[in-house]
Design brief:
Layout: H1 35-54, E1 63-73, E2 78-87, E3 97-104, H2 105-109, E4 114-121, H3 138-142, H4 157-160, H5 162-167, E5 171-176, H6 209-224, E6 230-240, H7 242-252, E7 259-263, H8 281-287, H9 294-297, H10 310-315, E8 322-327, H11 335-351, E9 363-364, E10 377-382, H12 390-403
Helix pairs in contact: 6-7
The chain binds beta-D-galactopyranuronic acid.
C-alpha cells in the first residue's frame, strides 16, 4: 500500500498473532522449554534473520581509538569526548567513525560514571547540538543529510534534545551514519566493500546497509565500554526510522547493549512483515534494496514463507529491556503491527524469568512509566507523525530510569 498526498495511509487494525512463526519452537519442530534451549533457539533465529533479512556482517574487528576531550561545552553543562574509531584490519583509506560523546559535567567533576544513550545520526554530530566545540567532519561536509554541504550547527538540536538528556543525568553518544555507509545505494560506498568476499554467509546473504549501521553502533559500544565515565552495562541504543531499524538490529544481536529503544522503526524494524498493509516487503526492497540482504526481496508477495518476522528480532533482546516507541499518526511505520510484534515476543521474556509487558499496552503520552507500570517490554505512543522530540526522549529516559541503576 502507498501513502496519500500527506505521506500518510490510514491506520491498520491489529491482527491476531497466532499465524506468526513460533518463537518457542525450533525449526525441526521440537519445543523450546527452558533458558538453555532458548540460547540455542536464539542462535538459530539470529542465523535466520541474517540469512533471510539483514545479511551476514563480518566478525567484530579490533578497533583503534584516539580521543580528544573538551570540557565545559553547552554552557558548561557537558564535557565532549570526540573519539575516532579505526579498524586495525582495514587499510588506511577505509572509513573511520567519529563518535561524539557528551557527558554531564557534574558527573565528570565527581568522577561518577553515567548511563549513555547511543544514537545514529543522519546530518552530522555538529547538527545534534549548537556548540562550536563539535567538529564538523569531512563526512558531514560531504553528506549533510537533506542540506547541500554540511548541515547547520544545531540543525537537529530539537530532535536529539542533548541538553535535556544531559540534565537528566545521562550521557549521549552519536555518530553520523554516513561514516559507515552514506546510503547512496552505491555498493562501492562505505565500509562494506572492504569486506567483500570475507563474509560468513553464502552468496546473496551479504550484509545490507542496516546491518552495516548496526555493526557501526556495536563498534561504538567497543569504544564506549572501556571509558571510565560510562556505565558499561548501561548503554542504551536508540534510533529513529531507518536508524531505529539499525538500533533494534544492533541491540538484538549484541548482548552488551543494556536497553534497546527503536523509534518509529517500521518495516525492517519493529513492524511485522506479515499482514502489514502499510510498507510491504516489496515497497521497502523496491525503494531501499541496499538496506537488506538480497534474499529478503524474494519474499515480496510470499511473506508467509519467511521463517522469521519482526517479533523474532525483538525476542533476541530478551531478557534485556526493550522500549518500542511509535507515533499514533505515523501510519506508514504501522504502530499496530509493531505492537503486535511486542505482544508476540513477550513469552520469551517470561521464559527467561523477566517481567514482560506490565500494564496494558500501548502506553500513551503522559502515562506514568515507573516500575509499577512497566515490565521489560513496552510499546509507547505519542500523538505525532514521523518525528523525534523531547516527549519521546523523556519516555525513553523514564523507562531507562526503571531499568538502570545509574
Ligand atoms: C521511508 C521508509 C521507511 C523509513 C523512512 C526513513 O521512506 O519507507 O521504512 O525507514 O524512510 O528512514 O526515513
Amino acid at each position: 500500500m502507498s501513502r496519500d498526498a500527506d505521506g500518510l495511509a490510514p491506520p491498520s487494525r491489529c491482527r491476531p498473532t497466532d499465524e506468526l512463526p513460533p518463537l518457542l519452537e525450533f525449526r525441526d519442530g521440537s519445543p523450546v522449554e527452558n533458558p538453555a534451549d532458548w540460547r540455542e533457539r536464539r542462535e538459530e533465529l539470529r542465523r535466520l534473520l541474517r540469512h533471510y533479512v539483514y545479511g551476514y556482517a563480518p566478525d567484530p574487528p579490533e578497533i583503534e581509538t584516539t580521543s580528544e576531550r573538551t570540557p565545559k561545552i553547552l554552557d558548561g553543562a557537558a564535557t565532549l569526548v570526540e573519539t575516532e574509531i579505526a579498524f586495525a584490519e582495514l587499510p588506511d583509506d577505509a572509513p573511520t567513525i567519529t563518535l561524539a560523546v557528551f557527558l554531564p559535567s557534574d558527573a565528570v567533576a565527581a568522577d561518577r560514571s553515567v548511563p549513555v544513550l547511543l544514537g545514529l545520526n543522519w546530518r552530522g554530530n555538529h547538527a545534534a547540538v549548537d556548540d562550536p566545540a563539535v567538529r564538523i567532519t569531512d563526512t558531514a561536509r560531504e553528506h549533510g543529510g537533506r542540506d547541500e554541504g554540511a548541515a547547520e550547527r544545531g540543525a537537529a538540536a530539537d530532535y536529539w534534545c542533548v541538553e535535556h538528556v544531559i540534565a537528566r543525568g545521562y550521557g549521549f553518544a552519536t555518530f553520523q551514519l554516513a561514516d559507515v555507509d552514506p546510503d547512496s545505494g552505491d555498493p562501492a560506498d562505505g565500509v562494506r566493500p572492504y569486506y567483500d568476499g570475507e563474509l560468513p554467509g553464502p552468496p546473496g546473504t551479504e550484509w545490507g546497509v542496516l546491518a552495516a549501521w548496526a555493526w557501526g553502533l556495536q563498534r561504538c559500544v567497543d569504544a564506549l565500554g572501556p571509558m571510565d565515565a560510562v556505565r558499561t552495562e548501561e548503554i542504551a541504543v536508540l534510533g529513529h526510522s531507518r536508524c531505529g531499524k539499525a538500533a533494534l538490529l544492533a541491540g538484538a544481536t549484541d548482548e552488551r547493549i543494556g536497553l534497546v529503544a527503536p523509534h518509529q522503526s517500521g518495516t525492517g524494524g519493529m513492524a511485522l512483515d506479515r499482514d502489514n498493509d502499510q510498507e510491504g516487503v516489496g515497497d521497502i526492497t523496491g525503494m531501499f534494496p541496499q538496506w537488506f540482504a538480497d534474499t529478503y526481496a524474494a519474499f515480496d508477495g510470499q511473506v508467509d514463507r519467511l521463517p522469521v518476522d519482526s517479533h523474532s528480532l525483538a525476542a533476541l533482546v530478551a531478557p534485556r529491556p526493550l522500549f518500542d516507541t511509535a507515533g499514533a499518526r505515523d501510519y506508514w511505520t504501522n504502530p499496530g503491527r509493531a505492537l503486535d510484534a511486542v505482544r508476540a515476543a513477550e513469552p520469551v521474556w517470561e521464559l527467561l524469568g523477566a517481567e514482560g509487558i506490565g500494564d496494558d499496552l500501548p502506553l500513551y503520552g503522559d502515562d506514568a512509566i515507573t516500575d509499577e507500570t512497566v515490565g521489560s517490554l513496552c510499546h509507547y505512543r505519542r500523538e505525532t507523525g514521523h518525528s523525534l522530540n523531547e516527549g519521546y526522549l523523556d519516555a525513553v529516559l523514564d523507562f531507562a530510569d526503571v531499568h538502570f541503576d545509574g
